[in-house]
TrEMBL record, chains A, B:
InterPro entries assigned to the protein according to its UniProt record, in alphabetical order: ALAT1/2-like, Aminotransferase_I/II_large, PyrdxlP-dep_Trfase, PyrdxlP-dep_Trfase_major, PyrdxlP-dep_Trfase_small
Transferase recorded as keyword: yes
Family to which the UniProt record says this protein belongs: Belongs to the class-I pyridoxal-phosphate-dependent aminotransferase family. Alanine aminotransferase subfamily.
Highest taxon listed in the record's lineage: Eukaryota
Native source organism of the sequence: Linnemannia gamsii
Quaternary structure and interacting proteins, as annotated: Homodimer.
Identification of the protein by name: Aminotransferase class I/classII large domain-containing protein
Low complexity composition bias: residue spans: 1-16
Needed co-factor(s): pyridoxal 5'-phosphate
Keywords attached to this entry: Aminotransferase, Pyridoxal phosphate, Transferase
Ranges where the Aminotransferase class I/classII large domain occurs: 110-482
SUPFAM superfamilies from the UniProt entry: PLP-dependent transferases
PANTHER family: ALANINE AMINOTRANSFERASE, ALANINE TRANSAMINASE
Length: 497, 497
């Protein structure tokens, strides 16, 4: 045995650990996830130091590295939280407590909690591994109302967030190390991280920054063909729509071309649609689901294989910490559906609290319901504020020296390009960092603003970008923009060639 | 490309799916998880048919296949649920609502909810990927109070249940397909399923049924050496204590031997201790944590590598559906700790509702607190009822023809052996099933009781067992036992040689 012969004395002192960076799972070691990488870790440390009286040139850390609205004080939707509160403590639903409960909770929240508990039993029990049947029925109704085409609850799996769904389904597909999965560049790094762990080949296709992060099937075909030439067996195509980190929103025509590309090349379409309600130009750039576009394309696309993902973490809900979401399977072989069930059952079930929030997402208060007016107001307040903040931040970036930024059709991010001086690039190299990582680290240390460098998402060689959410609090937003502007001017001056 | 050449027309009709059982991930296909396998799937179908007026020789399905207490009407702990309810809807904590809230919630539940929210912010925000710092501090205090040795919050990771922790940490260890992980036989099938997906080698060691499911280091060494001879590089040893499905509880002396075995053979100890409070013979067979035993063994064990797992799903809490737990790392290399953090961060964070229940588990009401009396009463009611039901079911099994059953020192299960007739074995073979699977399926169809066949856990070749929880409702327990007894007599008669 290797492990014995290398250490015949059997000592377990710290210099001869059984498990080390050198003999651990190399696929895990290879995985990178910049959204919570070096910059985020440093920002967490600064937070702790600030709390302990440490001195920094700023009062607070502003986490723009991750779409985490409630961490930046976005108010949760009251109706959703009332239901979440009621299902936890069913004494509140007893008839003898009704009068009291009605002073604290809306009557339709009480009704909804009762209905859910009648179906679920206890929120502390494992549920069906695929998700609570009633909630899957409600998801199916939501999808069919959205798309105008039927959806089947037996094809829907509730998950602990969209990330868990993506990880689970990619795991089904990767047969061997030459299996390729097409991913956009720039991409959300969940994809590259998961493919590294699964030992599969990322097959990159590039979004065209000069054309508002446009996606062409010519580029898809180039990417596919190039991978094929090097022996990669491409099995699936990931589309993030609206885009992350890029925010673009696909046209129906473009989506039809993408579906045709998949059919022709025999790849499964994986549609990450978690930002489907974060749409900021609803007239010019509305959201279309791939399911709807597919179903409108006629019978020759019958049996087309697709998985689409949704989440409670984004939209105007922002219930990230609860970990809830779902995916819908379209056209998958029954044997694969059975295997997805099996692998879900090993983890027993998605957490019930997350499942309940999925129910609320797909079935919010309706006109005429007691909670509707408040729901609508809270929803709209968040929505219109996001539009305003997106535009403000975009304008700010476009006014920075050497910086250009496409506008966001959707999602929660901007992904500006910065052109750094030779001197700055040399300083970054000296510090052992990618230029954009160097810039973002300087920004964090100077302002407390934590963004993610473009190198974490992938970008055209030789360019530099960063991703920022536009989620900081409305009342702090001008201060936030001013801080970045001031830092940027100083940085550019310091490293002027 | 294989996928093209096999289907040059590019058609995607159902006979030529891109993804099939034949080209999916073979490691996933290989995984088996009997706890929610054929029997559980059939029982779910019967439930639906019963609800739709289907006719069966019983009124209800009784799920004894899985430790899911609240699905069988175990009442949740009131204090825990009050806090869970309050943190969801922070309006309840406002001063102007205090008077009202106090009519529905205990004052210490309100205080705890305030404290948690002051630390967490919103329960809808992503938390620290390792888990909320305050809660990790409380876990560390719980461990050090339990063991009398210090624990370090930075070595604790909160998880979405113990299963998620086991999967994550096994994933770290499996470097290549010849890596072996020692597992007990019988075992909880999470382990074989996870090792199949990770493409690692299970290295089985046998528990001795004749000696109350005893575990000897001679057997551990035999297992290790045999694996080594066939080229397996064993890296870790899984111990489930108290045992699942076997319920045995290890003595301190036995645990010292196991630790010494690990040190000598250079394997990491993975201690699954999720049933640590399900202890039914506390005088003769108390629970000792591996952490405590290790720390009492002196300085030559400094740096010993171990991971131990705990959960909110078991004990008297039974909050399975919430998915919460933690693992504590002992002696791991810092590079490994960093990698565990990175891989956790890709999934963003464990769900916050599960984290909060971990806090409540490790920090329940104390003597003198307003909620203490009720908490103590609820806890004891469940505990003493479990002891009673365990004994009743054990006696019932031991009174069945051809059936013997060790008593449970701990956990939630009994794992009786049944000796089936040649005729029954032939009938099982004819039906294409393992004999115990055949028996359990007949039991389900006749009585509505769903158990899991021993073949799903592993057992000595040629023996037959099944696992049953003793969780059915106290008021239905006699009826439940009578149903099994009657079925068994009929089955034995039907297949008498």
């Amino acid at each position: 045995m290797l492990s014995i012969s290398s250490n015949p004395t059997g000592s377990s002192s710290s210099t001869t650990k059984v498990l080390t960076g050198n003999n651990m799972n190399p696929r895990v070691r290879k995985a990178e996830y910049a959204v919570r990488g070096e910059l985020a870790i440093r920002s967490e440390k600064i937070k702790v130091e600030l709390a302990n009286g440490g001195s920094f040139p700023f009062q607070r850390v502003v986490g723009c590295n991750i779409g985490n609205p409630q961490a930046l004080d976005q108010k949760p939707i009251t109706f959703f939280r009332q239901v979440a509160s009621l299902v936890e403590y069913s004494d509140l639903l007893k008839e003898e407590n009704r009068e009291l409960a009605l002073k604290l909770y809306a009557s339709d929240a009480i009704d909804r909690a009762k209905l859910l508990l009648a179906n679920i039993g206890s929120v502390g029990a494992y549920s069906h591994s695929q998700g609570i049947p009633l909630i899957r029925e409600n998801v199916a109704r939501f999808i069919s109302d959205r798309d105008g085409f039927p959806a089947d609850p037996s094809k829907i799996f509730l998950t602990q967030g969209a990330s868990a769904g993506v990880q689970l389904t990619l795991q089904m597909i990767v047969e061997h190390p030459d299996v390729g999965i097409m991913i956009p560049i720039p991409q959300y790094p969940l994809y590259t991280a998961t493919l590294a762990v699964l030992d599969a080949k990322p097959v990159p296709y590039y979004l065209d920054e000069a054309k508002a992060w446009g996606l062409t099937t010519e580029e898809l075909q180039r990417s596919y063909d190039e991978a094929a030439k090097s022996g990669v067996d491409t099995r699936a195509l990931v589309i993030i729509n609206p885009g992350n980190p890029t925010g673009q929103c696909l046209s129906e025509e473009n989506m039809r071309e993408i579906i045709e590309f998949c059919r022709k090349n025999r790849v499964i379409l994986l549609a990450d649609e978690v930002y489907q309600t974060n749409i900021y130009q609803p007239e010019q750039r509305p959201f279309h689901s791939f399911k709807k576009v597919l179903k409108s394309m006629g019978p020759q696309y019958e049996g087309f294989e697709m998985i689409s993902y949704h989440s409670i973490s984004k939209g105007m809900i922002g219930e990230c910490g609860r970990r809830g979401g779902y995916f819908e399977c379209e056209g998958l072989d029954q044997s694969i559906m059975d295997e997805i069930y099996k692998i879900s059952s090993i983890s027993l079930c998605p957490n019930v609290q997350g499942q309940i929030m999925v129910d609320l997402m797909v079935n919010p208060p309706k006109k005429g319901d007691p909670s509707y007016a408040l729901y609508k107001q809270e929803y709209d307040d968040i929505y219109f504020s996001l539009i305003k903040r997106a535009k403000k931040l975009e304008d700010m970036f476009n006014n920075l020296e050497g910086c250009t930024c496409n506008s966001a059709d959707g999602a929660m991010y901007l992904f500006p390009q910065i052109r750094l001086s030779k001197k700055a690039i040399a300083a970054a190299e000296h510090a052992g960092k990618a230029p954009d990582q160097f810039y973002c680290m300087a920004l964090l240390e100077a302002t407390g603003v934590c963004m993610v460098a473009g190198s974490g998402f992938g970008q055209v060689e030789g360019t530099a970008h960063f991703r920022s959410t536009f989620l900081p609090q409305p009342e702090l937003f001008d201060e936030f923009c001013a801080g970045i502007t001031q830092f940027h001017a100083g940085f550019m001056d310091k490293y002027r060639d």
